[in-house]
Amino acid sequence: MVITVKPCFHWIGYHIMTSLLQEGMEVVGIDRLDQKRKDHLYMYVGRNSNFQYFFNEKDKENHIHQEEEEIEIRCSTERLIGRNKKQDTTHDWKLPIVYGEWMDIQRMDIESEEELLDWVLQTEAVYIGDVTTPFLDLLLDREDSADVKREDQQAEVASHVREVWQTHLRMYPFL
């Protein structure tokens, strides 16, 4: 089975793609490498033997044959849409406000870990891993239904925020 993720270097698409690669799935990523951030993320997955990258859908069609068991995932900050071609099913999730590593913190004018934590608590944002896991479980038929579970403990939220902030600081030279 091949899973295509578009755009694969959008921060949410990247989380989905890396989750799938960690499970040993074959992933095709489609995205334009038109930002330093995307180039940087490509370096983390580009040598994975289960990953193939294409600039656009046409390039993919020209280089690999269509798989009968292909799953397509489209990502944005508002939605996750997964389509299983073989089963002719589509899962369309409206996302809550999410946060996680690789999100564009600069665009949000957040300048410290404390400000990020305040934003997460005020907006009741959900950690990206708490969204991608149930979505993939549902899409890959590991669960019949799936719900996004918000973090219960403020310590867990603070720990995720700390990880997100540290990633942001490490990534800053590549923006």
Q: How would you characterize the overall build of this protein?
A:
The chain has six helices and eight strands; from the N terminus they run E-H-E-H-E-H-E-E-E-E-H-E-H-H. With 175 residues, it is an alpha/beta fold. It has one domain (2-174). The strands form two sheets. A six-stranded mixed beta sheet has the order 3-2-1-4-5-6. Helix 4 (113-123) crosses helix 6 (154-171).
**Element order, helices and strands?**
EHEHEHEEEEHEHH
Mean pLDDT, all residues:
89
> What shape does the CA trace take?
globular
Number of extended strands: 8
Q: How are the strands of the largest sheet arranged?
A: 3-2-1-4-5-6
Structural class of the helix and strand makeup?
A: alpha/beta
Number of self-contained structural domains: 1
Secondary structure tally, helices:
6
